[in-house]
Amino acid sequence: MPNILIETERCLIRPLEITDAAGIFELDSNPNVHTFLGKNPIKTIEEAENVIKNIQKQYEDLGIGRWAIIDKANGDFVGWTGFKYIIEPTNGHVNYHDLGYRLVERYWGTGIATETAKACVKYAFETMNLETVYGICDIENLGSKNVLQKCGLTPIATFDYDDTPHYWFVLQREDWQKLSIPK
Ligand SMILES: CC(C)(COP(=O)(O)OP(=O)(O)OC[C@H]1O[C@@H](n2cnc3c(N)ncnc32)[C@H](O)[C@@H]1OP(=O)(O)O)[C@@H](O)C(=O)NCCC(=O)NCCS
């Protein structure tokens, strides 16, 4: 498989490819996945292809974008994880790296979201040489809040995002280095 960026115990992490469209369709057409994401799931495979093209444009323009998670056991598309470079002001911040993830429902409750997000944080500090990573989630999205906290990020504020209260999470490299989470 080309372009593997990160390998974890159960998964490979690589840039999204247009052939991931069926996987993105499974992910983003599921209303349960979109409970805390504006409740607007996609309806067509063309929309899934456009999601991928948009992220591939971020790779070109910004040098970074969300990455595909692949299950090593069967090659299945698990979802996406990693960093989006935020250029629209969010909670008064701009030009920062946001950690995010979205997994197809059959992979929820397996620990893979945390396993892969932790690996991305390590990659951010050790390979990308970032000083700070940020994250946001709906304050009612306890699964996502849990993942960000297990990665070492701290909710330091709340703010309104799309008219909904969200946590604002931060992790500095020097604080990450002091953490006892497995690296
Ligand atoms: C947010 C999301 C990724 C969280 O997924 P998740 O399944 O809760 O996260 P994990 O894969 O890390 O699983 C953690 C849970 O799996 C269970 N689990 C089962 N096997 C496990 C293992 N081997 N290791 C760790 N946890 C395991 C545990 O109960 C654990 O929960 P706990 O930490 O409270 O004990 C998922 O709900 C999702 O994709 N939602 C839709 C999109 C979304 O909301 N994205 C975030 C936007 S801010």
Description:
With 183 residues, the protein is α+β, with helices and mostly antiparallel strands. It has one domain (6-178): 3-Layer(aba) Sandwich (Aminopeptidase), CATH 3.40.630. It is 31% helix and 30% strand. The chain has a five-stranded antiparallel β-sheet with strand order 1-2-3-4-5, with helices on both faces. A hairpin with a 5-residue loop joins strand 3 (67-71) and strand 4. Helix 1 (21-28) packs across helix 2. The radius of gyration is 16 Å and the shape is globular. The two termini are 24 Å apart. 32% of the residues are buried. Residues 33, 36-37, 100-103, 108-114, 137, 141, 143-144, 146-147 line the site of coenzyme A. The site of coenzyme A has 20 residues, from strand 5, helix 3 and helix 4.
The appropriate CATH architecture is: 3-Layer(aba) Sandwich
Into which percentage range does the β-strand content fall?
A: 25-35%
Which residues form runs of ≥5 with pLDDT under 50? none
What top-tier CATH class fits best? Alpha Beta
Query: What share of the residues lie within helices?
Result: 25-40%
Tally the helices: what do you get? 5
Largest sheet: 5 strands, antiparallel
CATH topology: Aminopeptidase
Mean pLDDT: 96
Measure the end-to-end span.
Answer: 24 Å
Helix and strand element order: EEHHEEEHEHEEH
Ligand inventory: coenzyme A
Compute the CA-based radius of gyration.
Answer: 16 Å
Task: Supply database-style keywords.
183 residues, alpha+beta, Aminopeptidase, 5-stranded antiparallel beta sheet, 3-stranded antiparallel beta sheet, 5 helices, 8 strands, binds coenzyme A
